[in-house]
């Protein structure tokens, strides 16, 4: 994503020489082109059909923070949400997703452990959080 002058742009497509972004609001036709490294505009954004919405930026940053924490920690869903919300500005509270939606987003980021080719549990699930043996005997 790119934030420019209060507007948020998402990648529409990428060519061999540039990335093409479009306004996050799909009713808007505004586009801009950047270099592949996204360090410079090759063409500045075209005009928008609406006013900028800078209040949406904190909500996107919060969602990205929640997704990153969900992928790398084993903390509970509510702990991840509460720690992310501690720094969220009250002025942008209207842009925030509902709690149930944030919880679902966390669940979608987490990977599910599966059995290996021999039908055995992965090593991570064979131990408790205190690194004690959890599985005493395993057979088919």
From TrEMBL:
<keyword id="KW-0862">Zinc</keyword>
<dbReference type="GO" id="GO:0008270">
    <property type="term" value="F:zinc ion binding"/>
</dbReference>
<dbReference type="Pfam" id="PF04500">
    <property type="entry name" value="FLYWCH"/>
</dbReference>
<keyword id="KW-0863">Zinc-finger</keyword>
<feature type="domain" description="FLYWCH-type">
    <location>
        <begin position="1"/>
        <end position="49"/>
    </location>
</feature>
<keyword id="KW-0479">Metal-binding</keyword>
<protein>
    <recommendedName>
        <fullName>FLYWCH-type domain-containing protein</fullName>
    </recommendedName>
</protein>
<dbReference type="InterPro" id="IPR007588">
    <property type="entry name" value="Znf_FLYWCH"/>
</dbReference>
